[in-house]
Design a protein that fits this description.
single chain, alpha/beta, Rossmann fold, 7-stranded parallel beta sheet, binds hexanoyl-coenzyme A, NAD(P)-bd_dom_sf
């Protein structure tokens, strides 16, 4: 997958080019479209990164490509199943050994498929809860010592489908509702340590696996979005940079819904 951001994100941007210089981001799901563009933005603006994924080939490839975004960028890959906290602890240790520190954590690893309740097995439900919700918890558990030391910040990648009832998404809706609750509680509990926790909830974003699987009629979908367009990966990147930047230093325990007000129409995108 080619990078969706390039140098124009730095030159044609409201952000200072070195805003994240010396910082390190730890990204689960970093080989997928949404979390990858979040990593791209931070790397282009000065950060180094650890890309965490389950599939070795995809994760190594993403890390190698991301390291090309900036001449002095350091990007490592860690092969981890986020359901296993010990693997995340090892990945965090490797990140500190090789990149020196962790300042920002993006918990975005997710599993999903469309399945109606009647055919959804208990194990299938458990698998998605374990990846999306337990995996998010494990990610923060493993990186907490670094977040505390560096007064870091967290972004969870959630969704909007639990704001109302979306059929065939019972498992993901339940998991993402849990992710939002996890972020809220962490924001309150870790706030006194100087750690901020927020959520990005993407809507219909062009070029993502989710959109491809969920949206069959593109023109109809666009007509249902109040802003009359699909979201772009850049929209996700901008929200990510804002939430990690000093401009958001009093933003804690919020959900940034990046969907053009799509979910509020009840159209299911
Ligand atoms: C019904 C399914 C299923 C499907 C798996 N299962 N796929 N049930 N419909 N399409 C069931 C299996 O039969 C099994 O239950 C249980 O789920 C666990 O399956 P495994 O394959 O053993 O689990 P695992 O290898 O851990 O895979 C986890 C996964 C898988 C979540 C099921 O889809 C995955 O790894 N996905 C990662 C990639 C991914 O999903 N990316 C999408 C992200 S996009 P039984 O009872 O048979 O044991 C996104 C945005 C929204 O999240 C997308 C909207 C659609």
């Amino acid at each position: 997958m080619p990078s969706t951001l390039d140098q124009s994100f730095v030159t044609n941007s409201v952000w200072k080019p070195d805003i994240f210089k010396g910082k390190v981001v730890f990204v689960t799901g970093g080989a997928g479209t949404i979390c990858r563009v979040q990593a791209e933005a931070l790397i282009l603006l000065g950060a180094n990164a650890a890309i965490i994924g389950r599939n070795k080939e995809k994760t190594d490839k993403a890390a190698a490509e991301l390291s090309q975004l900036r001449p002095d960028a350091k990007v490592i890959s860690c092969i981890v199943d986020v359901r296993e906290v010990s693997q995340l602890v090892e990945a965090a240790a490797k990140t500190v050994r090789e990149l020196g520190r962790i300042d920002y954590v993006i918990a975005g690893a997710a599993g999903n498929f469309l399945c109606d309740f009647n055919h959804l097995s208990s194990n299938a439900f458990k698998s998605v809860i374990a990846i999306d919700l337990l995996g998010s918890y494990n990610t923060i558990k493993a990186t907490f010592p670094e977040l505390r030391k560096n007064k870091g910040a967290i972004i969870f990648v959630s969704a909007t489908l639990h704001y109302y009832g979306v059929p065939f998404q019972i498992h993901v809706g339940a998991a993402k509702a849990g992710v939002d609750a996890l972020s809220n509680a962490l924001a309150v509990e870790l706030g006194p340590l100087g750690i901020r926790s927020n959520v990005i909830a993407p809507g219909p974003i062009e070029g993502t696996e989710g959109l491809e699987r969920l949206v069959k009629d593109r023109a109809k979908t666009i007509s249902q979005v109040p802003l009359q367009r699909l979201g772009t990966t850049r929209d996700i990147a901008e929200a990510t940079v804002y939430l990690f930047s000093p401009a958001a230093s009093f933003i804690n325990g919020t959900v940034a819904v990046v969907d053009g007000a799509s979910w509020q129409t009840g159209s299911g995108v």
